[in-house]
Amino acid sequence: MARPAAPSRPLYLGPRIKRLRRELGLTQQAMAEDMGVSPSYIALIERNQRPLTADLLLRLAATYRLDMADLAAQDRDDHARRLAEALRDPLFAEIDLPALEVADLATSFPGMTEAMLRLHGAYARAGQALAEGREAAGAAPAADPVGEARRFLAARGHWFAGIETRAEALSAEIETAGGGAEWLRRNGLRVRAMPASVMMGALARYDRHNEQLLLDECLGPQRRAWQIALHIAYTSLRPDIAAIVRGESFASATAAQLVRRALAELGAAAVLMPYDRFARATQAQGYDVQGLADLFGVEWQQAALRLATLTKPGQEGVPFFLVELDSAGNVVRRIDGAGFSFAAQGGGCPLWSLHQAFARPGEVLTQWLEMPHGDRFFSMARTIDTPAGPGLPPVRRAMALVCPAQAAPRLAAARGVDPQTAAATPVGVTCRLCQRAECPARAQPPLGREILPDDYRRAAVPFVFSES
Questions:
Q1: pLDDT above 90 covers what percent of the chain?
Q2: Res 76: pLDDT
Q3: Do 216 and 204 touch, CB atoms closer than 8 A?
Q4: CA–CA distance from 55 to each of 36, 37, 61, 173, 405 (Å)?
Q5: How many helices and strands, by DSSP H and E, does the chain display?
Q6: What is the residue extent of each domain of the chain?
Q7: How far apart are CA 460 and CA 468, in angstroms?
Q8: What pLDDT score does 137 carry?
Q9: CA distances for 5 relative to 8, 28, 379, angstroms
Q10: pLDDT (mean) for 233-245
Q11: Are 293 and 303 in contact (CB under 8 A)?
Q12: I want to staple 120 with a disulfide (CB 3.0 to 4.6 A). Which of 72, 86, 100, 226 is the partner?
């Protein structure tokens, strides 16, 4: 690594150094030992009470194999610039705010500066939503990084040829090497299983200083393989992922990070389940999710996610809609497809077996669904357990894969049943948009319908509607 020229003025990079330390999974004590300084000195640097010297900057870059741009870039971490922009808001128009005081605040009190920036950001977004009347107009809410990331991926059909091609080549190299851990070892990186006391709440941690990937010792073989594949995706596919993210102007850094995470997961899936081989296996296995998971050494949810992204032009698989919910009904993950309507906001239909999966953990619940307009679908739902960290119980969620009824005969789980005559459960997108008057599970009346009074007659269904 070429030695950069020493900075000509003191560098106060406290927040950046603190974030770097946390990303590396290091305590102040550990970083101090690596740098040959005292823990109190690291604490002073992080609080911007000491500048980052040229010598220490060089040691940081060499010890943790960093690009100098990662430390010295003047981007969103430039607190003084961001604070000055926020303080131009008319809200502060009558307050005397000299530029020197603003700069001093950002330099000396980075934590307070960040707190103020977050509050101002929340205030600005709320004001924008009110000004545009988004709720009344039914438009998308302001500053929705999750929705922005989802739309970006959906617009491209979750297909990124560069990532898939590179991941397939990596998969072949890994298979030749005898597995991901051995492939990493040959490339100078050890994989070690460590106790919770070392992992500090992480499932996986890349120790750049000692060139090792640390994994929680309680991870099973499938989760170990997934974490190794994710590390390979984040490192070996980094240029491909960065090029895709840089090619789009996202409204927020969070949306860009969500896309980056999704692309890394797609890359990891492609490393463990190369497209062509996986696509052939789906035909042989009849889209049996558990069978595919066993064949490729992954978990049910990873095989399900791969099924939902088989969108290679000219080599598409069965179209699937995928959704993952927590026990409160919050959408954790969604991949739109198969023409299946889903409530973006508010509760879904309680008659869908996805919501009953929590009462039958680990069991795959199949169900034929019929939407109000007559469209039919086939659903497979089950619970999945996600690691919450060392010493903590896993987080239980439910995931469903839904395909159009006409494609269901290709699935082993639906073979032998005529999609048009199968007993289907009448479901809706959400109660407010479903006009099925006789639904006993209804929670709210639909839009545009008046309910009758129940002074003298109380029906078994929650609401009785007038004819007009």
A1: 50
A2: 38
A3: yes
A4: 11, 12, 10, 40, 66
A5: 19, 9
A6: 14-77, 80-143, 144-272, 316-430, 435-468
A7: 21
A8: 47
A9: 9, 27, 61
A10: 95
A11: yes
A12: 86
Class of domain 144-272: mainly alpha
**Rounded to a whole number, what is the largest CA-CA distance in the chain?**
87
Q: Which residue has the higher pLDDT, 99 or 320?
A: 320
Q: Which CATH class is domain 316-430?
A: alpha beta
pTM: 0.76
Find the length of the chain. 468
Q: What is the pLDDT of residues 217-231, one digit of tens each?
A: 989 999 999 999 999
Tokens for 458, please give them.
């109380």
Give the tens place of pLDDT for each residue, 82-137.
Answer: 888 888 876 777 788 888 888 778 767 777 887 888 788 777 766 665 555 544 44
Written as six digits, the tokens of 349 are 């239909």
pLDDT, residue 5, reads 46
Indicate if the pLDDT at residue 257 is higher than 90.
yes
What is residue 226's DSSP assignment? H
Assigned token pair, 341: 């309507």
* Residues 345-351: contacts with CB under 8 Å, at least 24 apart: 346/430, 346/432, 347/430, 347/431, 347/443, 348/429, 348/430, 349/427, 349/428, 349/429, 349/430, 349/431, 349/434, 349/441, 350/441, 350/443, 351/425, 351/426, 351/427, 351/439, 351/441
What is the residue type of 346?
Answer: G
CB within 8 Å of 171: residues ≥ 6 apart: 270, 271, 272, 274
* Phi, psi (rounded to 5 degrees) for 88: -80, -10
Distance separating alpha carbons of residues 78 and 85, to the nearest angstrom: 11
Tokens in use for 49?
């009470």
- The hierarchical CATH code for the domain 14-77 is 1.10.260.40
CA distance 431 to 352: 13
